């Protein structure tokens, strides 16, 4: 558990520095959105390309990834149904909160969890590919379709317009380019790759700093900020998703260690990428910030419990 605690401490440390920057007036008001915009339009595309271009796409056939992907889709669908019945919101808010239920922190926390609890960093690599190459384009396409001032269409024309706009998104372009390079073994010159790796390395710190700055002046779970959405999304993420992953794993006969891996991965907290999407598009920012904040703390005892119950398999 030492590595996991170090991973949590690293994330919370950078968030804390961001909070101090806001509190001390180094960054004021919406100035923090500059960090989100640079992360979204520059650093995150660079990070996604550098991760995906050297990935082994064949790992997507892993039964562990099948289980965690189905679990993520189930909890996202469950959130949408619950939201529609008890607290309906606009499409962007519903999409982001549902994403918070199943989009896991596979990098900052996934890597130390994989190394120190699961025993191999390779366990999270397929998940990173799935989230970057499959989840992100869908989420961003939906968010892009809700932007004010966009040309509207109906029927097939509306769908084609939404798809066309999505493929102008730098993150989607970077994901597509990275996957194509991996599929066709396209070599990337070092002179091109080196600056992309340097810029991509700044993506996560910038998002974490902006996240910390956003905490100044407003505590988490304040009345009137969508607390019910946050609590439902959090419960689905840290409780329902690992339970579903465990049940699916048992149903398809996963070996004990793979069952353990799938359950732990499903228990990881919501990724900061979701907050970056919310802040960049100006949709449900406080709700997503609170989901990320609460799941980050709530997931630690859940992961520890899973390790205790299943880790000996």
TrEMBL record:
Keywords: Cell membrane, Membrane, Transmembrane, Transmembrane helix, Transport. It comes from the Bacteria. InterPro entries: Mem_transp_PIN-like, Na+/solute_symporter_sf. It holds the Pfam family Mem_trans. It is found in: Cell membrane. It is a multi-pass membrane protein. The chain crosses the membrane at residues 7-27, 33-52, 64-87, 113-138, 159-186, 198-217, 229-253, 259-279, 291-310. Belongs to the auxin efflux carrier (TC 2.A.69) family. This is AEC family transporter. The lineage of its organism: Bacteria, Bacillati, Actinomycetota, Actinomycetes, Micrococcales.
């Amino acid at each position: 558990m030492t590595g996991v605690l170090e991973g949590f401490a690293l994330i919370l440390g950078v968030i804390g520095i961001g909070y101090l920057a806001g509190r001390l007036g180094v960054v004021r008001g919406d100035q923090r959105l500059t960090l989100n915009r640079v992360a979204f339009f520059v650093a995150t595309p660079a990070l996604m390309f550098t991760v995906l271009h050297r990935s082994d796409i064949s790992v997507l056939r892993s039964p562990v990834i099948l289980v965690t992907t189905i679990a993520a889709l189930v909890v996202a669908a469950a959130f949408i149904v619950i939201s529609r019945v008890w607290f309906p919101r606009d499409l962007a808010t519903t999409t982001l909160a549902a994403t918070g239920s199943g989009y896991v922190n596979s990098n900052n926390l996934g890597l130390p969890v994989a190394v120190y609890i699961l025993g191999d960093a390779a366990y999270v690599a397929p998940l990173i590919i799935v989230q970057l190459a499959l989840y992100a384009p869908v989420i961003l396409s939906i968010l892009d379709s809700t932007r004010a001032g966009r040309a509207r269409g109906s029927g097939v024309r509306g769908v084609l317009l939404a798809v066309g706009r999505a493929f102008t998104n730098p993150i989607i372009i970077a994901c597509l380019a990275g996957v194509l390079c991996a599929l066709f073994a396209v070599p990337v010159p070092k002179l091109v790759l080196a600056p992309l790796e340097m810029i991509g390395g700044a993506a996560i710190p910038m998002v974490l700093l902006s996240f910390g700055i956003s905490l100044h002046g407003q505590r988490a779970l304040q009345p009137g900020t969508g607390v019910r959405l946050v609590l439902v999304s959090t419960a689905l993420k840290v409780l329902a998703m690992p339970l579903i992953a465990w049940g699916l794993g048992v149903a398809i006969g996963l070996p004990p260690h793979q069952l353990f891996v799938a359950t732990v991965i499903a228990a990881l907290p919501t990724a900061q990428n979701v907050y970056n999407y919310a802040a960049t598009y100006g949709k449900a920012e406080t709700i997503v910030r609170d989901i990320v904040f609460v799941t980050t703390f709530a997931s630690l005892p859940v992961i520890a419990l899973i390790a205790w119950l299943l880790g000996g398999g």
